[in-house]
Amino acid sequence: MNPISNVWNHPKTSAAGLLIAVVTIASVLSRQGVTLGAAGTGTVVSLVGAIATALLGLLARDPGGESSSAGSTAKLGAWALIALLLPLPFAAGCSGVTVAQDIVNWTPALQSAVATVDSTAALLAPQDAPIFTAATIGFDAASNLLTAQAKAYLANPTASALSLMQTQIVTFQQQVNAALLQAAKIVDPASQQHALAAIQAVATIVTAILALVASISSKAQVAQMAAQSTIKLAAVRPLLDGSLAAGIVAGHYGEPVDLARIQVARAEYAQAQAGF
To answer: Which domain holds residue 182?
Structure first.
């Protein structure tokens, strides 16, 4: 079979093969100590491998199957290039003031997500509501404190104000991660789905804010924050819906969902690499 016509007739399969090759090569280069330079807290090689993995996930969820058009595959390639060239909107603060403003900009969405959590217990089965309420009881206080600290840092960006935000965002992240693990124990399928979706909306915003705070923190400070993170991302990652997270990020920054999905994957990868 003509290899060129095969690529043209089966663009999705060809793209998947290319991405698998990229992931494989990136893995080999990483083991050999080849980095091709730094990219945030990781390396260019690890970043390319992570994005290729994310794109493979996108292809696997594509409902079009082998009938996917060449244009659709090309669009995925374009988003991959954009994601490589552009910094994460929620992890690229040029200054502490810029980051603090971005955190403050997230607070309406955070407060809305927490309000949804507060009202979700009424949607759950009677035996499940107390479990959910106990798991999320600290969300209101945590979000209010984080919002106040972000506004204080924006008004007066000092090292002590940054330290308070670092401590609070990790504390909040741990509360959210613990709540996700508790919600996963809910037996009723409908109740569990409602509970996890409500908590994940908060988790997505907390993850974005954590990335923002980490972007203006030193490596030593990030390492200290990660050390305080005892419930790691790997423990809750199977409970998270990537489409939901991408939708929240895309809506906040006014960008395409495909791009947001890749950015979320990059942020999660960077945080996992940092030890969160």
So the answer is: 96-274
